[in-house]
Design brief:
- Helix content is about 50%, strand content about 15%.
- It has about 130 residues and is α+β, with helices and mostly antiparallel strands.
- It has a three-stranded antiparallel β-sheet.
- The longest helix is centred in the last third of the chain and has 30 residues, at about 70-100.
- The protein is rod-shaped.
Length: about 130
């Protein structure tokens, strides 16, 4: 009667694995919240720290730029440093997800996990 269902007979085990993966994903997200990435521009004259979500945590501007009144240079370097830090945070996040997925391709993986009970609805958004 159920021959045509193939692997659907294992749906319970699959759902259990998916829920376990969702729990591990939640733990990973909590761990990543404690990590930061640093981006720099102008040879380190401007540095920005961001969290895993890409939110700026701190900014460091070399005092010589301020002393010289290099407002325009600071305005140019600051977005570059922020973008560099955000790119590092995204890379850190992707590497952590790859480890969680056992090295499998994870295109849409975070979106899928966010749909599980207890999943983070913003997990796949950057």
């Amino acid at each position: 009667m159920f021959k045509g269902l193939g692997n659907l007979a294992n749906i319970g085990a699959l759902m259990k694995q998916a829920q376990e993966m969702g729990g591990r994903m939640q733990g990973l997200q909590e761990e990543l919240k404690t990590k930061k990435a640093t981006g720099a521009a102008g040879g380190g004259l401007v540095q920005v720290d961001v969290n895993d979500a890409g939110e700026a945590l701190s900014v460091r501007i070399d005092p010589s730029l301020i002393e010289k009144g290099e407002r325009e240079l600071i305005e140019d370097l600051l977005p570059a440093a922020i973008n560099a830090a955000q790119a590092k945070a995204k890379q850190m996040h992707a590497e952590a997800l790859q480890g969680l997925a056992g090295g499998l391709p994870i295109e849409g993986f975070a979106d899928m996990l966010s749909q599980l009970p207890g999943g983070d609805p913003d997990a796949g958004k950057s």
